[in-house]
Amino acid sequence: MSDSKKQPPAASRGRDVDGQRLKRMRETGAKPPISQPNQKSEGWKPDFTLDCGWGRLVFAQTFDQLSDVAGALREEKADRRDIAVYVRDPHVLLASAPLEVFLDPSHTYRLNLSSYRPSKKTPKGYFIRRLTSRADAVAINRIYASRGMVQVPPDFFWSQRDARSMIYFVAEDERTGEILGTATGVDHAQAFGDPERGYSLWCLAVDPQARHPGIGEALVRRLAEYAEARGSAFLDLSVLHDNVQATALYEKLGFQRVQFFSVKRRNSINERLYTGPETDDGLNPYATIIVREARRRGIQVEILDAPGGFFRLTQGGVSVRCRESLSEHTSAVAMSICDDKATTRRVVEQAGVKVPPQISADADEDRIAAFLEEHGRLVVKPARGEQGRGISIGLTSMEEIADAIEVAKQTSNDVLIEAMVEGHDLRLVVINYKLVAAAIRRPPFIIGDGQSTVAELIAAQSRRREAATGGESKIPIDGETQRTIAAAGKSLDSVLALNEELTVRKAANLHTGGTIHDVTGEVHPALVEAATKAARAIDIPVVGIDFMTKSPREPDYAFIEANERPGLANHEPQPTVERFIDLLFPLSMPEPTRQALRKGSRAGEKTKG
């Protein structure tokens, strides 16, 4: 090896490494305000804030005084979340308004676009495009709601569709046209004349029920490539310090953590970020969402048994024990009616609610055979039970029925056989005898990639459902799953073609991998009337009524069952939890809700008159 190719001494290499590290710290560390004339570029805008619909981005590097940054945060509007970004000396800003602002517990990551390399893989089953319609805006809000994010007026999205400083990308399912994810980009140079030519990513969100892998990565890559094409030098983003899954994705794509800080205003939206960790470990999502809403209203919460979902709510001398959405307001009689599906059916049928034909599994074989011949396809289910356990659907032979009865008896000694009603599984949540939410529940299905087996696709889909629901939803590979797969002419070892779909269970229960899709705004009045009629017949104040229906827009239906403990966490953006707390503690109801109810009451009286 020639002298020209010899490596420098170790000491020199160490100095070079230290020099590179110091250079990187200077380039990516907290910087002073852009105040010198030679730092400013064409289009420069001092004291700049950008309205993003969900709140404003306060670019602190454009402010000369930290007190002015605090003043900008004080102008935050109701139900919005402003963020001061690139804050230098955040400790000084916090000291100037300690009761108003707090240091956001998020890390900032930066992708150097000059070293970014596009992926050789292309999205399968979906594609990334820009926002093009008001329907896209509505879909983005649906995803925001499912992720607990602040929603944006749809007209705002539409008004910004041609803006040069901000862009919205969405991921669209190739087959259904459904919006699966979204990301927002902000061009700093276009926004305020940033001399560093920066770009930032905001509001990356993927529908928790999306079945396609890699949607988040595809959205980030699309935005990075878009920013690079526009001459941007880097792409920044902010991620909560404990979001391990997102952080792993960003580091995989080449993002590096940089020392920038963000400051937010203390408000009800940000509360969990500055009040410290909640002592609710062990509560499932259905209990957690109620407990959080109660605390937000100043209601005292006492966790009685976290694994079982039991807690006590207390305010103003009123104390109510709950198990998730089941409270002391539900009587033991009402609960007993719901607990026995045969009893539930008789009670609602007497009230005029339409029910499907049904017999007991204890009937003799000839009667069961005649019932099968009459209806063609049957459902076998335990008379008692929940979460879809022991249910078999679409049975067409006496052998299948016999096997299904044995499975159902593992859940309940009493087993029912019911005529199968074709259509959609519709859940209607009725609180205080008013419809609050309606949603179509769909059975779990997988999408082929041309390489993976059915078993591998189920495992991957199950992992995504578990991650999206806090471990509450997963697809079991049991007799029902294997029977459904076999009925489609497949096995667990089969390899599905690219984009080939396979339904792996007939039941649409969320706990066994099903998904839920809000239809509250389009449900037919006849279905609403039937659901409230069923709730009054059972005399239960909080209930999930399940119908089978050809379409939520049509009046035809068949009653399936009533759930005395419906999962309220499954129905965003509908205010199921808010109405539940209103029922328990009417005096805690926010004033805007009171005014809306008073207006609705007056409108109803005028209509009757």
Automatic annotation (TrEMBL):
Compositional bias ranges of the Basic and acidic residues kind: 13-29
PROSITE patterns: ATP_GRASP, GNAT
Originating species: Rhizobium halophytocola
Boundaries of every N-acetyltransferase domain copy: 126-276
InterPro entries recorded: Acyl_CoA_acyltransferase, ATP-grasp, GNAT-acetyltransferase, GNAT_dom, GSHS_ATP-bd
Name of the protein described by the UniProt record: GNAT-family acetyltransferase (TIGR03103 family)
Disordered: annotated span: 1-45
Keywords noted in UniProt: ATP-binding, Nucleotide-binding
Ranges where the ATP-grasp domain occurs: 345-589
